[in-house]
Amino acid sequence: MDPTYGTHVKLLAFDFLSLTQKSSSDPICFYRKGRPVSRAETVGVVVSRERKGDKFLKFLVDDGTGCIPCILWLNHLNSPYFSRCNPSDVRLMADMAAGFAEEIKLGALARVRGRITSYRGALQITVSDVFVERDPNAQISYWLDSIRLAVNCYNVLPSPNFLKHHHQQNHKR
């Protein structure tokens, strides 16, 4: 498995919005220049915010290259999806999501991480965590990190030996 697949890949909006899916049969795998990615991180200004009661919060993060749609689920306590989970874990997730929803205000500079998903053909980040940045240089620093990582890591395909070794290690477990 490619090492970019399970990590939060730092992407600028123009890069995020250019991700592709090879097939609709695998809804959780997206590709950036041929490399699989499943999670992303972005930093930008919250420019739109729409809450649907206790169900979800939709918001847009603008990083200067475009806007990334994000969705934060708030229905942990009454969703059948979480009914099979430990109730104390679900309560913790619900409390964390409620706290994140309070932090996401219009004009806030936010660092958002989560799974890359598609809804009605549009890419979005299904939020796992949010951090409101207090440092005014955070967005510039993020831009520089994203560009450096794109050039030195994301644009470089792993060697076949790495993939072979990684594949063998995963099958020994």
From TrEMBL:
Q: What is its main location?
A: nucleus
Keyword DNA-binding assigned to the entry: answer is yes
> For this protein, what is any one GO molecular function term?
DNA binding
Entry keyword set: Chromosome, DNA-binding, Nucleus, Telomere
SUPFAM superfamilies, alphabetized: Nucleic acid-binding proteins
Pfam families cross-referenced by the UniProt entry: tRNA_anti-codon
Does the entry feature the keyword DNA-binding, yes or no? yes
Quote the InterPro entries the UniProt record gives: NA-bd_OB-fold, NA-bd_OB_tRNA, RFA2-like
Its transmembrane ranges are none
Q: A cellular component term (GO) from this record? A: chromosome, telomeric region
The record's subcellular locations are: Chromosome, Telomere; Nucleus
Q: Can you give the residue ranges of the OB domain?
A: 43-131
Note the PANTHER family from the entry. CST COMPLEX SUBUNIT STN1, REPLICATION PROTEIN A-RELATED
Protein name in UniProt? CST complex subunit STN1
